[in-house]
Specification:
345 residues; alpha/beta; Rossmann fold; Alpha-Beta Plaits; 2 domains; five-stranded parallel β-sheet; 12 helices; 12 strands
Protein backbone atom coordinates (compact mmCIF):
# COMPACT_ATOMS: atom_id res chain seq x y z
CA UNK A 1 0.00 0.00 0.00
CA UNK A 2 1.25 3.48 -0.92
CA UNK A 3 2.69 5.27 2.13
CA UNK A 4 0.98 8.58 1.28
CA UNK A 5 -2.34 6.79 0.82
CA UNK A 6 -1.99 5.07 4.18
CA UNK A 7 -1.08 8.35 5.90
CA UNK A 8 -4.14 10.02 4.40
CA UNK A 9 -6.40 7.16 5.45
CA UNK A 10 -5.01 7.20 9.00
CA UNK A 11 -5.63 10.94 9.20
CA UNK A 12 -9.22 10.57 7.97
CA UNK A 13 -9.98 7.68 10.31
CA UNK A 14 -8.36 9.50 13.21
CA UNK A 15 -10.70 12.44 12.66
CA UNK A 16 -13.68 10.11 12.28
CA UNK A 17 -13.12 8.33 15.59
CA UNK A 18 -15.39 9.64 18.34
CA UNK A 19 -13.23 11.41 20.93
CA UNK A 20 -14.82 9.32 23.65
CA UNK A 21 -12.90 8.00 26.67
CA UNK A 22 -14.00 5.70 29.50
CA UNK A 23 -12.21 6.16 32.84
CA UNK A 24 -12.24 3.31 35.36
CA UNK A 25 -11.32 3.76 39.03
CA UNK A 26 -12.76 2.48 42.30
CA UNK A 27 -11.60 5.65 44.11
CA UNK A 28 -14.44 8.15 43.68
CA UNK A 29 -12.29 11.23 44.23
CA UNK A 30 -9.48 10.09 41.91
CA UNK A 31 -12.07 9.17 39.30
CA UNK A 32 -13.68 12.62 39.45
CA UNK A 33 -10.34 14.45 39.30
CA UNK A 34 -9.07 12.55 36.27
CA UNK A 35 -12.44 12.77 34.50
CA UNK A 36 -12.41 16.55 34.94
CA UNK A 37 -8.86 16.79 33.53
CA UNK A 38 -9.76 14.76 30.48
CA UNK A 39 -13.07 16.54 29.88
CA UNK A 40 -11.33 19.92 30.08
CA UNK A 41 -9.14 18.82 27.17
CA UNK A 42 -12.22 18.45 24.96
CA UNK A 43 -12.88 14.72 25.22
CA UNK A 44 -16.26 13.13 25.87
CA UNK A 45 -15.85 11.28 29.17
CA UNK A 46 -17.73 8.46 30.88
CA UNK A 47 -16.92 7.02 34.32
CA UNK A 48 -16.99 3.52 35.78
CA UNK A 49 -16.31 2.65 39.43
CA UNK A 50 -15.44 -0.99 38.71
CA UNK A 51 -14.30 -3.32 35.97
CA UNK A 52 -17.79 -4.90 35.85
CA UNK A 53 -19.42 -1.52 35.33
CA UNK A 54 -16.85 -0.66 32.65
CA UNK A 55 -17.61 -3.87 30.77
CA UNK A 56 -21.32 -3.11 30.94
CA UNK A 57 -20.78 0.39 29.51
CA UNK A 58 -18.54 -0.99 26.77
CA UNK A 59 -21.30 -3.41 25.86
CA UNK A 60 -23.70 -0.50 25.39
CA UNK A 61 -21.41 1.99 23.63
CA UNK A 62 -18.03 1.88 21.93
CA UNK A 63 -15.19 3.75 23.62
CA UNK A 64 -12.01 3.98 21.51
CA UNK A 65 -9.86 4.62 24.60
CA UNK A 66 -10.15 3.31 28.17
CA UNK A 67 -8.01 4.71 31.00
CA UNK A 68 -8.02 2.44 34.02
CA UNK A 69 -6.48 3.66 37.26
CA UNK A 70 -7.03 0.48 39.23
CA UNK A 71 -5.19 -2.78 38.60
CA UNK A 72 -6.98 -3.38 35.34
CA UNK A 73 -5.32 -6.56 34.12
CA UNK A 74 -8.35 -8.73 34.97
CA UNK A 75 -10.63 -6.13 33.36
CA UNK A 76 -8.46 -6.03 30.23
CA UNK A 77 -8.41 -9.83 29.99
CA UNK A 78 -12.22 -9.89 30.19
CA UNK A 79 -12.45 -7.16 27.54
CA UNK A 80 -10.11 -8.96 25.14
CA UNK A 81 -11.90 -12.26 25.77
CA UNK A 82 -14.95 -10.67 24.17
CA UNK A 83 -12.95 -10.27 20.97
CA UNK A 84 -12.70 -6.50 21.42
CA UNK A 85 -9.53 -5.34 19.71
CA UNK A 86 -10.63 -1.84 18.70
CA UNK A 87 -10.36 -0.30 22.17
CA UNK A 88 -7.01 1.08 23.35
CA UNK A 89 -6.37 0.41 27.06
CA UNK A 90 -4.15 2.75 29.06
CA UNK A 91 -3.31 1.82 32.66
CA UNK A 92 -2.28 4.57 35.08
CA UNK A 93 0.05 3.47 37.87
CA UNK A 94 2.00 4.93 40.78
CA UNK A 95 5.59 5.60 39.78
CA UNK A 96 6.91 3.42 42.59
CA UNK A 97 4.51 0.53 41.94
CA UNK A 98 6.03 -2.82 41.07
CA UNK A 99 3.70 -4.13 38.38
CA UNK A 100 4.14 -7.12 36.14
CA UNK A 101 4.26 -5.15 32.89
CA UNK A 102 4.85 -8.23 30.77
CA UNK A 103 1.71 -9.85 32.15
CA UNK A 104 -0.24 -6.66 31.47
CA UNK A 105 0.87 -6.37 27.88
CA UNK A 106 0.16 -10.06 27.35
CA UNK A 107 -3.36 -9.49 28.73
CA UNK A 108 -3.94 -6.70 26.21
CA UNK A 109 -2.92 -3.49 28.00
CA UNK A 110 -1.67 -1.12 25.30
CA UNK A 111 0.19 1.46 27.36
CA UNK A 112 1.22 2.30 30.94
CA UNK A 113 1.40 5.84 32.33
CA UNK A 114 2.10 7.17 35.79
CA UNK A 115 -0.60 9.02 37.74
CA UNK A 116 1.55 12.14 38.25
CA UNK A 117 2.11 12.63 34.53
CA UNK A 118 1.67 16.30 33.46
CA UNK A 119 -1.33 17.07 31.25
CA UNK A 120 0.78 17.80 28.16
CA UNK A 121 2.33 14.33 28.17
CA UNK A 122 -0.89 12.60 29.21
CA UNK A 123 -2.87 14.07 26.32
CA UNK A 124 -0.03 13.53 23.86
CA UNK A 125 -0.20 9.83 24.70
CA UNK A 126 -4.00 9.85 24.46
CA UNK A 127 -3.88 11.40 20.98
CA UNK A 128 -1.24 8.82 20.05
CA UNK A 129 -3.73 6.16 21.17
CA UNK A 130 -6.35 7.46 18.72
CA UNK A 131 -3.75 7.52 15.92
CA UNK A 132 -2.75 3.95 16.75
CA UNK A 133 -6.38 2.85 16.48
CA UNK A 134 -6.62 4.52 13.07
CA UNK A 135 -3.46 2.71 11.96
CA UNK A 136 -4.80 -0.63 13.17
CA UNK A 137 -8.03 -0.07 11.24
CA UNK A 138 -6.11 0.88 8.08
CA UNK A 139 -3.96 -2.25 8.28
CA UNK A 140 -7.03 -4.39 8.94
CA UNK A 141 -8.76 -2.96 5.86
CA UNK A 142 -5.63 -3.48 3.78
CA UNK A 143 -5.39 -7.13 4.82
CA UNK A 144 -9.08 -7.60 4.01
CA UNK A 145 -8.54 -6.11 0.55
CA UNK A 146 -5.60 -8.44 -0.10
CA UNK A 147 -7.63 -11.47 0.98
CA UNK A 148 -10.72 -10.51 -1.00
CA UNK A 149 -8.78 -9.62 -4.12
CA UNK A 150 -11.00 -6.52 -4.47
CA UNK A 151 -13.23 -7.86 -7.31
CA UNK A 152 -13.70 -5.28 -10.06
CA UNK A 153 -16.08 -4.84 -12.96
CA UNK A 154 -14.30 -5.88 -16.16
CA UNK A 155 -15.99 -3.19 -18.29
CA UNK A 156 -15.36 -0.13 -16.15
CA UNK A 157 -12.56 -0.96 -13.73
CA UNK A 158 -14.72 0.07 -10.75
CA UNK A 159 -15.66 -2.36 -7.98
CA UNK A 160 -18.31 -4.80 -9.21
CA UNK A 161 -21.85 -4.72 -7.80
CA UNK A 162 -21.48 -7.36 -5.04
CA UNK A 163 -18.19 -5.81 -3.86
CA UNK A 164 -19.74 -2.33 -3.92
CA UNK A 165 -22.64 -3.37 -1.66
CA UNK A 166 -20.30 -5.24 0.70
CA UNK A 167 -17.97 -2.27 1.05
CA UNK A 168 -20.87 0.16 1.36
CA UNK A 169 -22.35 -1.93 4.18
CA UNK A 170 -19.04 -1.57 6.02
CA UNK A 171 -19.07 2.19 5.47
CA UNK A 172 -22.66 2.40 6.75
CA UNK A 173 -21.87 0.39 9.89
CA UNK A 174 -18.84 2.57 10.61
CA UNK A 175 -20.75 5.82 10.04
CA UNK A 176 -23.65 4.76 12.27
CA UNK A 177 -21.32 3.49 14.94
CA UNK A 178 -19.37 6.76 15.07
CA UNK A 179 -22.37 9.01 14.50
CA UNK A 180 -20.96 10.39 11.24
CA UNK A 181 -22.56 11.47 7.96
CA UNK A 182 -22.38 9.31 4.84
CA UNK A 183 -23.84 9.91 1.39
CA UNK A 184 -24.15 7.84 -1.78
CA UNK A 185 -24.54 9.46 -5.18
CA UNK A 186 -25.77 7.21 -7.98
CA UNK A 187 -24.85 8.10 -11.56
CA UNK A 188 -26.42 6.49 -14.63
CA UNK A 189 -24.74 6.59 -18.04
CA UNK A 190 -26.75 7.04 -21.24
CA UNK A 191 -26.03 7.93 -24.85
CA UNK A 192 -27.01 11.42 -26.01
CA UNK A 193 -27.35 10.15 -29.58
CA UNK A 194 -30.04 7.46 -29.91
CA UNK A 195 -28.00 5.82 -32.68
CA UNK A 196 -25.09 5.39 -30.30
CA UNK A 197 -25.12 2.64 -27.66
CA UNK A 198 -23.68 3.79 -24.34
CA UNK A 199 -21.75 1.56 -22.01
CA UNK A 200 -18.78 0.28 -24.02
CA UNK A 201 -15.83 -0.78 -21.93
CA UNK A 202 -13.50 1.99 -23.10
CA UNK A 203 -16.17 4.66 -22.53
CA UNK A 204 -17.00 3.42 -19.04
CA UNK A 205 -13.32 3.34 -18.08
CA UNK A 206 -13.05 7.00 -19.08
CA UNK A 207 -16.15 7.75 -16.97
CA UNK A 208 -14.72 6.01 -13.91
CA UNK A 209 -11.34 7.69 -14.27
CA UNK A 210 -13.03 11.07 -14.56
CA UNK A 211 -15.04 10.39 -11.39
CA UNK A 212 -11.91 9.30 -9.51
CA UNK A 213 -10.06 12.44 -10.63
CA UNK A 214 -12.88 14.60 -9.23
CA UNK A 215 -13.66 13.00 -5.86
CA UNK A 216 -11.40 13.02 -2.78
CA UNK A 217 -8.47 10.63 -3.12
CA UNK A 218 -8.33 7.75 -0.59
CA UNK A 219 -11.60 8.92 1.05
CA UNK A 220 -14.40 8.74 -1.53
CA UNK A 221 -14.70 5.78 -3.87
CA UNK A 222 -16.83 4.49 -6.75
CA UNK A 223 -18.37 1.11 -7.56
CA UNK A 224 -20.89 -0.29 -9.98
CA UNK A 225 -24.49 -0.65 -8.79
CA UNK A 226 -25.90 -2.62 -11.72
CA UNK A 227 -24.41 -5.75 -13.24
CA UNK A 228 -23.94 -6.23 -17.00
CA UNK A 229 -25.82 -6.44 -19.29
CA UNK A 230 -27.99 -3.87 -17.48
CA UNK A 231 -27.39 -0.20 -18.25
CA UNK A 232 -24.45 1.15 -16.29
CA UNK A 233 -25.25 2.80 -12.96
CA UNK A 234 -22.44 3.65 -10.55
CA UNK A 235 -22.44 4.63 -6.90
CA UNK A 236 -20.03 7.23 -5.54
CA UNK A 237 -19.58 6.73 -1.79
CA UNK A 238 -18.93 9.98 0.09
CA UNK A 239 -17.95 9.61 3.77
CA UNK A 240 -18.66 12.72 5.89
CA UNK A 241 -20.81 14.28 3.11
CA UNK A 242 -24.38 15.43 3.83
CA UNK A 243 -27.31 16.24 1.49
CA UNK A 244 -26.31 19.90 1.75
CA UNK A 245 -22.98 19.03 0.08
CA UNK A 246 -24.72 17.10 -2.71
CA UNK A 247 -25.51 19.85 -5.25
CA UNK A 248 -21.93 21.17 -5.36
CA UNK A 249 -20.44 17.66 -5.62
CA UNK A 250 -22.91 16.76 -8.37
CA UNK A 251 -22.09 19.87 -10.41
CA UNK A 252 -18.34 19.20 -10.15
CA UNK A 253 -18.91 15.64 -11.36
CA UNK A 254 -21.28 16.76 -14.12
CA UNK A 255 -18.74 19.28 -15.41
CA UNK A 256 -15.88 16.77 -15.34
CA UNK A 257 -17.92 14.04 -17.03
CA UNK A 258 -19.21 16.41 -19.73
CA UNK A 259 -15.63 17.35 -20.59
CA UNK A 260 -14.31 13.78 -20.65
CA UNK A 261 -17.34 12.07 -22.25
CA UNK A 262 -19.25 14.62 -24.37
CA UNK A 263 -21.23 11.92 -26.21
CA UNK A 264 -22.75 10.61 -22.98
CA UNK A 265 -25.43 11.93 -20.65
CA UNK A 266 -25.60 11.41 -16.89
CA UNK A 267 -28.39 11.39 -14.32
CA UNK A 268 -27.72 11.78 -10.61
CA UNK A 269 -29.38 10.66 -7.39
CA UNK A 270 -28.37 11.23 -3.78
CA UNK A 271 -29.22 9.63 -0.43
CA UNK A 272 -27.62 10.09 2.98
CA UNK A 273 -27.75 8.64 6.45
CA UNK A 274 -29.83 10.67 8.89
CA UNK A 275 -27.62 13.15 10.75
CA UNK A 276 -26.03 11.58 13.81
CA UNK A 277 -26.26 8.04 12.39
CA UNK A 278 -28.40 6.90 15.32
CA UNK A 279 -31.69 5.04 15.30
CA UNK A 280 -32.64 2.41 12.76
CA UNK A 281 -29.84 0.30 11.29
CA UNK A 282 -29.65 1.05 7.59
CA UNK A 283 -28.69 -1.48 4.93
CA UNK A 284 -26.54 -0.51 1.96
CA UNK A 285 -29.27 -1.69 -0.42
CA UNK A 286 -31.74 0.75 1.17
CA UNK A 287 -29.33 3.66 0.83
CA UNK A 288 -28.79 2.81 -2.84
CA UNK A 289 -32.51 2.22 -3.39
CA UNK A 290 -33.44 5.68 -2.11
CA UNK A 291 -30.66 7.28 -4.17
CA UNK A 292 -32.03 5.53 -7.26
CA UNK A 293 -35.54 6.86 -6.59
CA UNK A 294 -33.99 10.31 -6.28
CA UNK A 295 -32.16 9.76 -9.58
CA UNK A 296 -35.37 9.16 -11.58
CA UNK A 297 -37.18 12.05 -9.86
CA UNK A 298 -37.55 15.37 -11.71
CA UNK A 299 -37.03 17.36 -8.52
CA UNK A 300 -40.57 18.71 -8.54
CA UNK A 301 -43.67 17.65 -6.64
CA UNK A 302 -45.24 14.57 -8.18
CA UNK A 303 -45.52 10.77 -7.93
CA UNK A 304 -41.74 10.21 -8.33
CA UNK A 305 -40.90 12.62 -5.52
CA UNK A 306 -43.62 11.10 -3.32
CA UNK A 307 -42.18 7.60 -3.84
CA UNK A 308 -38.68 8.79 -2.97
CA UNK A 309 -39.87 10.61 0.16
CA UNK A 310 -41.99 7.68 1.37
CA UNK A 311 -39.13 5.19 1.03
CA UNK A 312 -36.72 7.70 2.52
CA UNK A 313 -38.83 8.08 5.68
CA UNK A 314 -39.48 4.33 5.98
CA UNK A 315 -35.80 3.38 5.68
CA UNK A 316 -34.25 6.07 7.89
CA UNK A 317 -32.43 7.57 4.92
CA UNK A 318 -32.63 11.25 3.99
CA UNK A 319 -32.70 13.01 0.62
CA UNK A 320 -31.96 16.60 -0.34
CA UNK A 321 -35.60 17.68 -0.71
CA UNK A 322 -36.63 16.36 2.73
CA UNK A 323 -35.76 17.99 6.03
CA UNK A 324 -37.37 15.90 8.78
CA UNK A 325 -40.98 15.69 7.66
CA UNK A 326 -40.88 18.90 5.61
CA UNK A 327 -40.55 18.40 1.85
CA UNK A 328 -39.43 21.12 -0.55
CA UNK A 329 -41.45 21.25 -3.73
CA UNK A 330 -38.32 22.22 -5.67
CA UNK A 331 -35.24 20.08 -5.00
CA UNK A 332 -31.90 21.90 -4.89
CA UNK A 333 -30.06 18.71 -5.80
CA UNK A 334 -31.91 18.46 -9.11
CA UNK A 335 -31.40 22.09 -10.07
CA UNK A 336 -28.59 22.93 -12.49
CA UNK A 337 -27.25 25.91 -10.56
CA UNK A 338 -23.66 26.69 -11.42
CA UNK A 339 -20.92 26.33 -8.84
CA UNK A 340 -20.24 30.09 -8.92
CA UNK A 341 -23.93 30.78 -8.24
CA UNK A 342 -23.92 28.28 -5.36
CA UNK A 343 -20.86 29.92 -3.81
CA UNK A 344 -22.40 33.38 -4.04
CA UNK A 345 -25.75 32.22 -2.61
Amino acid sequence: MNVDAMATRISVLGRALPMRILIVDDDELELALLADRVAAAGFEVARAASGAEALRLLGEQWFPVVITVMDGIAFTQALRARGTDDTYVIMLTLRESNLDYERGYFAGVDDYLTKKLPDTELFARVHAAFNTLALRRTLKETRAQLVSGAPVDAESGAFNAPETLQRLNSEVRRAQRYGRMLSVMTISVRALDSAHAAGGGAELQVVIQSIRNTIRTHIDWVGRITEPPAAAVFGVVLPEASPVDGPAIKERLRAALSRSSPSLGFDFGLASLERGGAGKQVEASELVGVAELCRVCSGHAGPAQLSAVQRSVASGVTIACRHGYVVESHCTFKSKVSLSEQRSA
